[in-house]
Design brief:
Largest sheet: none
Oligomer: single chain
Number of helices: 11
Strand content: under 5%
Shape: elongated
Helix content: over 70%
Order of helices and strands: HHHHHHHHHHH
Length: 238
Amino acid sequence: VMCNAIAGTAIISSAKVMMGDIFGGIFPLLVTNSFTAMYVASLSIINSGRRLGWAVASDYMGRKNTYFLFATAIPICASIPYLTAWASAEASTIPLALFFGGTLISFSFYGGLFSVLPAYIADVFGQKHVGAIHGRLLTAWSCAALVGPTLLTRLRKESYESAVRDLVNRVDAMEFQKTFGAPVTQLEQLVEAKTVTINRLLEISPVGTLDPTPFLYNSTMYACSGILGVALLCNALI
């Protein structure tokens, strides 16, 4: 339960920022504030609607098989770095559409996770103590609500700092000091103070330097895929 929920909470906690960071620079006229707000609203709607939809589907598919189906979020998360690279290379809206649809599908699993859970508990442990067991399992969701956003924030920060260091290596040291009023040796403090940002570094980087912003969530998506893989294994062992 916790592993499945981590991926869902990680996405919804920063969905608007992710959409803007990954596709905002590639499609500035399309991915506007209104578009990203609509995207977040769509995630909320799909989360609510699929609570009923997956519960009904599990009556026909079986609870365990439904949880196995939720594992298709693994290739969805793992494919996001590829979609990002595709969009950056060709400026095609197809990766954007696939990202939009894929994250909606994977997030519907987050809603379905809890709607199917009580019936799954009853199938495994019987009806007598469903309430007590369900209450204890919900503590896993509470942990996921903390771990998911924290994981995303930590991994994004590491990716951001790595991208900044890579850009600094491409920039002339004298130009860096002229622009930011401090030498490269003070990079860590300048980044912490938000004096040095990716956008400002791109302004003084050599022509043709690729904007690393769309790739800041690659490590997060791979981590989510791995965590969902653990959930798949746990389900298989039940």
